[in-house]
Design a protein that fits this description.
The chain is α+β, with helices and mostly antiparallel strands. The protein contains twelve helices and twelve strands. The chain has a five-stranded mixed beta sheet with strand order 6-9-10-11-12, sandwiched between helices. Strands 2-5-3 form a three-stranded antiparallel beta sheet. The protein has a two-stranded antiparallel sheet with strand order 1-4. A hairpin with a 5-residue loop joins strand 7 and strand 8. Helix 7 runs parallel beside helix 12.
Length: 324
């Protein structure tokens, strides 16, 4: 197939609304195609203005864990209660104890307007508080801005279902990698979501360009190992056309050709396409089609890419380290 051969585009345009989010349903195998359901407005994003004195009182009462939870939501934009539990409530005697404590802390942070919840939740109303999706609310935003002078006030807009599904799937992936590393004795040296993983460069015409990987991950085969394996992760839930995915691969090639990453870090990360779709047959067809397109395109180096089923990606990355 030549570079100009059209690729199939008959894929679903939005996620399955009957599926539940992986972490909300505790089913590891269904990492992708998350489900977010709009509910009647809860009146979030509104409230009286917080005075400076009140903000100082709120800040003084926050624990290190509260601030870490705020920072996590800031990094990933949106996180579910299960995401936050997996990240910050790992030293409890049981999962039930961790869940109870996490719910209590989140309720307090909501009352303080550190974190807010979307009107849209994972898995519908039956998911209860575990289906709530958190964002940085007014007080949290002001505290974060005070800690980073260059950071501007962020205007909050209710995200689209597609954007939210993708954002939560990225958080799913980050947590799955952490859990896989822990179970195999590996070390997660660094995980950066899109905002922190963004690379800027100039293309061949000197035009400024921006590359936005979904995740940047550094892994070591064992804790303290000096050698790390590095990955750019792209999460695809079957929303984008394959020409769009190939175009993103070409952007990686364009950035690689600048040599910027290699000069700064000594090498270029492997690019992982973690792909899923509403139907497994569709996901299989898309993974094969993208692999064929990358293989046949004269501007892409097939060895740079690895195309994996989204639910298998975290284990595959970590097990690959252990077997090196």
């Amino acid at each position: 197939m030549s570079d100009t051969t059209p690729l199939p585009t008959d894929y679903p345009t939005e996620s399955n609304r009957e599926q539940t989010n992986t972490l909300a349903s505790a089913k590891r195998a269904a990492t992708g195609a998350t489900n977010t359901v709009a509910l009647p407005s809860t009146g979030s994003h509104t409230g009286p203005r917080i005075s400076n004195r009140r903000l100082e009182d709120i800040r003084a009462g926050l624990s290190d864990r509260d601030l870490a939870m705020l920072a996590s939501v800031e990094r990933y934009r949106f996180l579910s209660a299960r995401h936050l539990q997996a990240l910050h409530f790992t030293d409890h005697a049981s999962t039930e104890s961790a869940s109870r404590t996490c719910r209590r802390v989140l309720a307090r942070l909501r009352r303080l307007r550190i974190l807010g919840v979307l009107d849209r939740r994972i898995g519908g109303i039956r998911a209860g508080s575990e289906g709530l999706v958190y964002y940085v609310d007014t007080a949290g935003d002001r505290i974060q801005r005070d800690g980073a002078q260059a950071r501007r006030r962020r205007r909050f807009d209710e995200p689209s279902a597609r954007f939210l599904d993708h954002t939560l799937a990225i958080a799913d992936m980050a947590i799955a990698v952490r859990e896989a590393a822990q179970s195999h004795g590996a070390e997660v040296v660094k995980i950066d979501p899109e905002h922190h993983a963004t690379r800027t460069y100039q293309d061949g015409y000197g035009v400024p360009q921006v590359l936005r990987p979904d995740l940047y991950i550094e892994l070591a085969a064992s804790v303290g190992d000096d050698e790390v394996s590095v990955f750019f992760i792209e999460v695809d839930l079957g929303h984008e056309s394959l020409p769009t995915l190939l175009g993103k691969s070409l952007a990686y090639e364009e950035y690689r050709a600048t040599g910027s990453e290699q000069r700064q870090y000594g090498g270029f990360p492997q690019v992982i396409w973690a792909m899923d779709a509403h139907r497994e047959t569709t996901a299989l067809r898309r993974r094969k089609a993208l692999g064929d397109a990358i293989e046949r395109n004269s501007r892409t180096a097939a060895s740079l890419y690895r195309i994996l089923a989204l639910p298998d990606t975290a284990d595959a990355l970590v097990q690959g380290l252990c077997h090196d």
